[in-house]
Amino acid sequence: MKIHGLCIVKDEADVIAECLEASLAWCDHVYVFDNGSTDGTWQIVQALAARHPAIVPFKQDPAPFHDGLRAQIHDAYRQRTEPGDWWCRLDADEFYVDDPRTFLAKVPMDVDYVVTAIFAYYFTELDAAAWQADDQAFNATPVTRRLRHYLNHWSEPRFMRADPARAWGPDQGGWPRWMHAGRAYPVRIWVKHYAYRSPPQIERRLATRRGAIDSGAAFAHEAVHDFPAAIASVTRTGNLPGRPAGPAACVGWRQRVVPASALHYDDQDRRLVVNEHLMPPIPGQPALGTARLSHPWIAPLARAAARTRLRARALWKRVRAAEPPRPRPSGSTS
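^ that's the sequence the OP posted. Answer follows.
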């Protein structure tokens, strides 16, 4: 089993090296598409590729962003994959809690894709104070250690079973239609998402995404009125941010400072609060209401139970398929 990463980046110089080096622990190949960086991101990718052959600079192209751009990477390299391999949508600001290689090795062959539990880390007033006190020390600290306040309120597919015979056209969006028609694994893989990392990075992020936000092509979650209040209200209302708003919705970094009191704190001990009721249900699985998993021994037990149920269903189907037809009682008529 090999894992192939689809990585689209733009102006992620502050985090791209940290992300790619972390992915090398579990990803066999990372194909990087630079969408027009001007902050040195592409040069960092090329330097890393010179040291790590698993990192493959695909191309640099400043075309307007849309989710279908990932299809270009897939279709260029799909012949390198074999049945049993996986594609990963590898975002430059995401870091996995679970080891994807260990996790995917347990997924049955009749499963087509895996969704995440995304722990979104936000820039709080405490982070702003630390940055203002010493911005160099703040930026020098790895992002996975310097940002500690998070909320689990979203989930998306991140891994898709590879099929070298199938193309993925750019008109199909963020994932090919044939993936969505397949079967989802009933257990989520955990990933930490660091979208807002420092005031300069937040300003670059908003400027980079402005065109796609204004056109409605992508990033609807950025176009909300009063972003801090929207995030702070998620656990109370159950509504995810993403309401249309005007240009004032993303003016500057101060409009992205979320109150720390509205978030959970990460002690770096793997005790993360999972809000199943705030995430989209896994396709084919019942919603789990307001259940939360916050202790390190609960999550593994829940995952083991889900895997056991999946194996039991598969075994029952095989047993039923192997049973010979039952003889009719003598004298019966049809």
